[in-house]
Amino acid sequence: MILPALPILIPLITLIFLLIGFKKQQSQPWIGLSGALLQLTLAIIIGIQVNNHGIMVLHTGNWQAPFGITLVIDAFSAIMLVLSGIIAVSISLYSIDAVDRKRQSYFYFPMVHGLLMGVNGAFITGDIFNLYVWFEVMLTASFVLITLGGDKKQLN
After folding, report:
1. Distance separating alpha carbons of residues 17 and 35, to the nearest angstrom
2. Number of structural domains, the chain?
3. Taking the model in full, what pTM does it have?
4. Most-buried pick from 42, 65, 109, 146 (CB within 10 A)?
């Protein structure tokens, strides 16, 4: 069952598509919105699954913890994934008009999905070490988004 890994894989795949189609700036907002909608849909499906069948656990590579990466989705994680999906869709809709083309050309949409990947990974990780890893992914993307455009008021 790969379903617990999809909240991480969907933003990663969206990020890859955004980087592949980076020269077509007019398609960036729509690819980002599609990825956010897919993430929200997936989060709702996971929430229903957790509600009906209980906690979902995935040991990647079939290695048990502490040797492998364990992903765990319980009721709280499922709720947080749905909230993350709602926020992702809201940000994507807002960004279509509010973020100017100059800032979009500095990898705005790929970094948003990198941030979402880190957030979702932090929500569903099964151990402290991987929580640290997902926090680093999240922080890296957020630092890029903070300094995007390089205006002096952003960098102070």
Report:
1. 10
2. 1
3. 0.89
4. 109
